[in-house]
């Protein structure tokens, strides 16, 4: 069984003290730090870029998972890699040569993933699944933190797992982002998700450390 990993998203944190926001979840047992990168073009919001990530890299050794919600990500991936990210996902409709970009990311020693918006079918991965390390399923429309979970998105998980089995890529990790909380994380985990991005359910909690503890406990509950 693959290890279940929790990746708090600092998009929901206090941007005036991102260093502290990262340290508190690290101390609580977070496995990955999720970085939502938005350019105001692919999504209607603007967040952080390589200079901020480079500064944050100095304060933690946790893996950085960068979700690039930007157009032409191929122009910027090297800057993010140089800043210290360990995982990069991008959207197929944001670039022309997805395979070339995946291969370049991996050549730099970084894991490469493809992000699926709620309206993107799993079938779009049929040719690229052979080359990627993980798939990020968006369970909200990307752009803002705190949105309501779209339950229909869960239908993609068995389809994706079948595609992985049919192509011999059962080693591909499944990540989910959007509206993940203590009430739905157990069900989603039991469906076979490996990485859980949690924003508001962690950073919106009065006790962030306790929120991390509860989420990690619930994502590791299984039906016998």
CA distance, first residue to last residue = 14 Å
Order of helices and strands: EHEHEHEHEEHEHEHH
Decide which structural class fits the backbone. Answer: alpha/beta
- Tell me the number of helical segments per DSSP (H or I, 4 or more residues long): 8
Helical content band: 25-40%
The coarse overall form would be globular
Our count of domains comes out at 1
Uncertain ranges: none
Structure description:
The relative contact order is 0.17. Helix 1 (18-28) crosses helix 8. The chain has 224 residues and is of the alpha/beta class. It contains 8 helices and 8 strands, in the order E-H-E-H-E-H-E-H-E-E-H-E-H-E-H-H. An 8-stranded parallel β-sheet has the order 1-8-7-6-5-4-3-2. The mean pLDDT is 95. The protein has helices at residues 18-28, 50-57, 77-83, 98-107, 156-166, 185-190, 200-203, 208-219, and strands at 5-8, 33-38, 64-69, 87-91, 111-116, 134-138, 173-177, 195-198. Strand 7 (173-177), helix 6 (185-190) and strand 8 form a beta-alpha-beta unit. It has a single domain (5-219), classed as TIM Barrel, CATH 3.20.20.70.
Keywords for this structure?
globular, 224 residues, single chain, TIM Barrel
In short:
By secondary structure, the chain is α/β, with parallel strands linked by helices. The chain has one domain (5-219): TIM Barrel.
């Amino acid at each position: 069984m693959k290890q279940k990993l929790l990746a708090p998203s600092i998009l929901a944190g206090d941007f005036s003290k991102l260093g502290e926001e990262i340290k508190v979840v690290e101390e609580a047992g977070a496995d990955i730090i999720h970085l939502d990168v938005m350019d105001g073009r692919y999504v209607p919001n603007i967040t952080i870029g390589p200079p901020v990530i480079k500064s944050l890299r100095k304060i933690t050794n946790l893996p950085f998972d960068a979700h690039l919600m930007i157009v032409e990500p191929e122009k910027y991936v090297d800057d993010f890699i140089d800043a210290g990210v360990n995982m990069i996902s991008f959207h197929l409709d944001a670039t022309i040569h997805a395979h070339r970009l995946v291969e370049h990311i991996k050549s730099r020693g970084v894991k490469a993933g493809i992000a699926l918006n709620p309206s993107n079918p799993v079938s779009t991965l049929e040719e690229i699944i052979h080359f990627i390390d993980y798939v990020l399923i968006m369970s909200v429309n990307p752009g803002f933190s705190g949105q309501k979970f779209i339950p229909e998105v869960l239908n993609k998980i068995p389809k994706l797992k079948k595609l992985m089995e049919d192509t011999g890529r059962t080693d591909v990790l499944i990540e989910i982002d959007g509206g993940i909380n203590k009430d739905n994380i157990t069900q989603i985990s039991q469906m076979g998700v490996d990485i859980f991005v949690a924003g508001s359910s962690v950073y919106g909690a009065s006790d962030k450390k306790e929120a991390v503890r509860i989420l990690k406990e619930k994502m590791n509950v299984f039906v016998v």
